[in-house]
Amino acid sequence: MMGTTKKEGWPRSTGRRYSLEFRLSVMDEATRVGVSGACLKFGISRTTCYAWGKRWNPSYPQSLANYPRKNVVHPFAISQNVTELILDISARNPTWGCKRLSAYITMLEMPVSSPTIQKVLMRAGRGRVKQRLEALAEGS
Fold it and tell me: Are 126 and 88 in contact (CB under 8 A)?
């Protein structure tokens, strides 16, 4: 839902993502009347204006463009192959608990903790022995 500021009618995007034109207008106004006046006129905080000011290069307007959001990948996340291995071994041995699965997979030179195995099984809907046995019965 797009909102507008009361004084100028500038369109603001939802959340904290402002358009490049809006940011450039704020910086132009800040150079003319000062940061406080520009912030009052456009309805933004001085902290935001100063952060944009650090990035702003008047000869390069794209300096205020939105940065793409980072695709954060956890460095210790288990791979899809290990997840599939956990689910496969669990399907073949539905009565094994997480500690036994962890010990078995560790013997295969892929150390995975039992809480991690529990999380994988819970996400797959096989967190309890009863769920794994039901999945085995449905697959037969």
Answer: no
